[in-house]
């Protein structure tokens, strides 16, 4: 029988605590979309946050009160509001103006020479996310009494809001013995360790924090998270139940998901996640600005997928996919900005998501897909943005990994010129938009024209596949989930299909009855 795993750490507060693990980076339920508004909404959110902090301070000891007073002082600092207002005048949305202002402050603290100054960065991160929560209507959630809090770091207000009378402890992957949470833990005799490094645990797993010896003990089977082998998601073969055509050609069958909960449909006979539409998990501009929330969502999917590849598409917003709170979205949509064009026009949105994806990449086999790509330089510009954010994360000593970056093929002009997209790591055909633009149909009328346009779409795909230069290529649009189109798609050379979970059995059954050239197998 495997022995429990003991991880060396730094003692931040003495004592020993055992309890079920609470993973701090798990996402809460998605909030209802909410319009954020302008500077007045930010002022209201700051007032709400100050009120919450003042409530926490009621009856708090002197050390706790000092920390809360510092946070309230920062929120009331007129220079913070002025800097945010100045960014809004530079065409920043109010949410991203707030994030940029606080991130600049956090960056200065993290670059300080003194550890005590560096430790204060988490206090500013705390109030940044508290105000974001107030803007989105999603307060910071508490965790079950008696739990062992497991995460990268912990906000002081979260510590103060929790009832420690029923026991529990804290185990942080990073953290500081000089940080405010460590100070509070010592004052309240809460066992705490820091600097464990990332380790594998599930919500509810038994964990023991040894604040005397500086260690964390996990149940048998626990492990430090290794650096997974990395490569484009498109070139992994199916694991478990290999799928082949009637004449023996291997086929990958993945699933599309819109919600992290749908990852449960990923069984051993599925190759992985061929498309996660991230915009359905980001329901407001406040969510789009919340790096930690996005990281938690992506991490959940990657950890559940295990060794199977996951392709997450960056936010495809604009047009018929609005995000509550982005006040100027109608004007952007009227200018034809959607998908990658909108992300490049509003890099503050792309940068937050890029950081979340870079950090999430260490938890599994992640590839990133860019939506609505039309020209090669759009990929180059986004790759450069990822490189810049990776450098920033490196300077902050935050664990991250650069994922392969590929593109959706859903614009006819791009499909005709795929050989010019040399920097794309992989391609995936999005037939919904491809059909719409080929048929010159409105989005809400495309169903009526899809059948008529199908021959043209299949011909275009067949031509485009020849231009991919052997790079991993898949199809994730609705045509992939329709058995009547499979012969044409196989004949075009496609060998990787990603479909809605409910369509997978029908597509699997259809594939095994066809030869790789799309003809029916003998006896079918």
How is this structure best described in words?
The chain is an alpha/beta fold and 524 residues long. It has helices at 39-57, 62-76, 78-89, 94-110, 115-119, 121-136, 156-161, 180-187, 285-288, 291-305, 329-334, 340-345, 347-360, 376-395, 412-416, 431-439, 446-465, 486-491, 504-511; strands spanning 4-8, 10-13, 16-23, 148-151, 169-172, 192-194, 199-200, 206-210, 215-220, 223-224, 243-244, 250-257, 273-277, 309-313, 365-370, 405-409, 427-429, 473-475, 496-499. Strand 8 and strand 9 (215-220) form a beta hairpin. The N and C termini lie far apart (50 Å). The chain has three domains: 4-28 and 141-224, Glucose Oxidase, domain 1 (3-Layer(bba) Sandwich), CATH 3.50.30; 39-136, Orthogonal Bundle (Enzyme I, Chain A, domain 2), CATH 1.10.274.10; 233-511, TIM Barrel, CATH 3.20.20.60. Helices cover 40% and strands 16% of the residues. It is globular. Residues 27-35 and 224-241 have low confidence and may be disordered. The protein has 19 helices and 19 strands. The strands form three sheets. Strands 11, 12, 13, 14, 15, 16, 17, 18 and 19 form a nine-stranded mixed beta sheet that branches. Strands 1-9-8-3-4-5-6-2 form an eight-stranded mixed beta sheet.
